[in-house]
């Protein structure tokens, strides 16, 4: 299918099926058709959410299993051959992996247009060069350096009218682009509502307006989040009616002063923990309304973490989510958190998400339907890991592959009680931080450890909700999509989460943030392991010393305890004396 293939109009009448979205108690949801019961079979099903039946699109056989016929099957690389792609959020964590994967696995792709925001002192061309110099693109620079010229920067800003794109660049995109990936978003959980609405909602609306003008658009893939419906414990691949009309929220944000809006934010977001999940939920419903006849699909990843395999195992470039806390734990400066150890840690490697996005675009474009399909890209249903195992694997591997410059021997405790955790955090986080800062001042250095602990505490506060709750993210559409792929495409675009070996993945994850975030080479591991062994003995001696001090303190304060201890020792001595006669 060439880039100039005309777009087949599809009639999306889903908006008429929704109830009044301003009704906060609405139980209506818009179901994506084609849900299946298991990975082994494909068939229609009715989505049930908490006893309420979602409005179901009329469709038959949305997914057909791969038949093995090479004559009728268009592979994913063949599909992208000669096409041009437009990506928002291309300079972010997921966007970089998407660009690299398209260039490497779809070698005949024509162009990749990246929306890049100019920064002070850095033009978009300079920012693109910096992007392509990243370690992520090392293999392409070595094997296919000319392919990097296919990446073309488009100057713009997701927060500006018409995305800040010039008229000439808009015309260029409208003429040439046939696939759009929209991954631009603010992922800060504590973002102010005004900016979150501007990026996550208005940015999406402006992109859709541009897509309506594209002459050959065959697929628009919107990246949402599995947690946009975190006010429910079971989340199907449907769009649920939002708590408010998205247009009303946009008007409210534009009308109210920001300080007033900040005061109203907690009551507006309701049961959701932050503005990110709130605005992402509204953005989905707004997309459904604004898309009209556009061929759209939504991909909802859960917690996106380091790569599983591609372009190499363990690649990560940010401290967002659990990565920041694991890094602090690896340094020995973070040791306790409120977390339900038996809850599922729904983390998903970034390359799994990207492969699904690329495949979803292929499916959306090559099988025109009236349906807006949603794909929950998660691991909890098919191949779960608990927070307890996640943390235990991480602790084992940061001890096996230690960072340089560790402050203390790494360890971690998951606690159910916020009160006990707060006391423990003060003892193991803040007391050592104050001591180290005092020592830093004495030698003329800048005190930093209390500030670091304050930053960690803020990050923990944002993640507590997700570490103490559990969801069932239904992924039937993802499973059905997998069945439509040829064996070769399944191998090249892996998104089957059952292939993950969690223990090996966590080892690669630790080695990844050691190399790519802390810039520490594998050659430094022997020296780091020697220091880790010293820290182990220091930690052990410290614990023994603390136990002795605590015991002596208790003994000095309690005569009864002293008597019990003396009696215990006397019995031990008697037993030892009797051993030769036994």
UniProtKB/TrEMBL annotation:
It catalyses: a long-chain fatty acyl-CoA + 2 NADPH + 2 H(+) = a long-chain primary fatty alcohol + 2 NADP(+) + CoA. Keywords: Lipid biosynthesis, Lipid metabolism, Membrane, NADP, Oxidoreductase, Transmembrane, Transmembrane helix. SUPFAM superfamilies: NAD(P)-binding Rossmann-fold domains (SSF51735). Residues 87-357 form the Thioester reductase (TE) domain. The chain crosses the membrane at residues 535-554. It holds the Pfam family NAD_binding_4. It is an enzyme of class 1 (oxidoreductase). Residues 1-26 are annotated as: Disordered. Residues 429-520 form the Fatty acyl-CoA reductase C-terminal domain. Its EC number is 1.2.1.84. Belongs to the fatty acyl-CoA reductase family. Catalyzes the reduction of fatty acyl-CoA to fatty alcohols. This is Fatty acyl-CoA reductase. It comes from Musca domestica. The lineage of its organism: Eukaryota, Metazoa, Ecdysozoa, Arthropoda, Hexapoda. The gene is LOC101891740.
């Amino acid at each position: 299918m060439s880039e100039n293939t005309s777009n087949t109009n599809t009639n999306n009448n889903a908006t008429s099926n929704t109830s009044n979205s301003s009704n906060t108690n609405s139980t209506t949801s818009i179901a994506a058709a084609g849900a299946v019961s298991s990975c082994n079979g494909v068939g229609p099903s009715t989505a049930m959410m908490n006893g309420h039946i979602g409005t179901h699109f009329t469709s038959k056989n949305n997914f057909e299993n791969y038949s093995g016929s090479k004559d009728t099957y268009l592979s994913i690389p063949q599909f992208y051959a000669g096409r041009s792609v437009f990506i928002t959020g291309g300079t972010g964590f997921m966007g970089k992996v998407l660009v690299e994967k398209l260039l490497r696995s779809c070698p005949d792709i024509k162009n990749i247009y990246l929306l890049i925001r100019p920064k002070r002192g850095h033009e978009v061309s300079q920012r693109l060069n910096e992007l392509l110099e990243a370690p992520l693109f090392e293999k392409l620079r070595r094997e296919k350096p000319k392919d990097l010229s296919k990446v073309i920067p488009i100057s713009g800003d997701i927060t500006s009218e018409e995305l800040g794109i010039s008229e000439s660049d808009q015309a260029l995109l409208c003429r040439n682009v046939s696939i759009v990936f929209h991954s631009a978003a603010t992922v800060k959980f504590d973002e102010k509502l005004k900016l979150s609405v501007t990026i996550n909602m208005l940015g999406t609306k402006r992109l859709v307006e541009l897509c309506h003008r594209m002459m050959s658009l065959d697929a628009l893939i919107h990246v949402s989040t599995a947690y946009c419906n975190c006010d429910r414990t079971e989340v199907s691949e449907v769009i649920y009616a939002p708590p408010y009309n998205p247009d009303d929220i946009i008007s409210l944000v534009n009308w109210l002063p920001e300080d007033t809006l900040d005061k109203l934010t907690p009551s507006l977001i309701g049961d959701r923990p932050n503005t990110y999940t709130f605005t992402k939920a509204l953005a989905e419903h707004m997309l459904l309304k604004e898309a009209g006849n556009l061929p759209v699909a939504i991909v909802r990843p859960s917690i996106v973490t380091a790569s599983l395999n591609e372009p190499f195992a363990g690649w990560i470039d940010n401290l967002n989510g659990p990565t920041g806390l694991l890094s602090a734990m690896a340094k020995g400066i973070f040791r306790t958190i409120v977390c339900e150890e038996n809850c599922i840690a729904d983390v998903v490697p970034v390359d799994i998400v990207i492969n699904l996005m690329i495949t979803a675009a292929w499916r959306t474009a090559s099988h025109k339907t009236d349906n807006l399909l949603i794909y929950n890209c998660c691991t909890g249903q098919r191949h779960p890991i608990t927070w307890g195992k996640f943390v235990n694997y991480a602790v084992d591997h940061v001890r096996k592959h230690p960072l340089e410059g560790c402050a203390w021997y790494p360890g971690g405790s998951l606690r159910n009680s916020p009160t006990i955790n707060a006391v423990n955090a003060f003892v193991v986080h803040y007391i050592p931080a104050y001591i180290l800062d005092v020592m830093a001042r004495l030698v003329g250095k800048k005190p930093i450890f209390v500030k670091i602990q304050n930053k960690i505490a803020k990050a923990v506060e944002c993640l507590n909700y997700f570490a103490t709750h559990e969801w069932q993210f239904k992924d039937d559409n993802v499973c059905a999509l997998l069945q439509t792929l040829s064996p070769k495409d399944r191998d090249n675009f892996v998104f089957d989460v059952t292939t993950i070996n969690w223990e090996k993945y966590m080892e690669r994850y630790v080695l990844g943030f050691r190399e790519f975030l802390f810039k520490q080479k594998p050659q430094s591991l022997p020296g780091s392991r020697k220091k880790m062994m010293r820290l182990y003995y220091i930690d052990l001696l410290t614990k023994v010393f603390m136990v002795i001090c605590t015991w002596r303190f208790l003994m000095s304060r309690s005569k009864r305890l002293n008597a019990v201890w003396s009696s215990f020792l006397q019995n031990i001595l008697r037993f030892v004396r009797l051993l030769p006669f036994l």
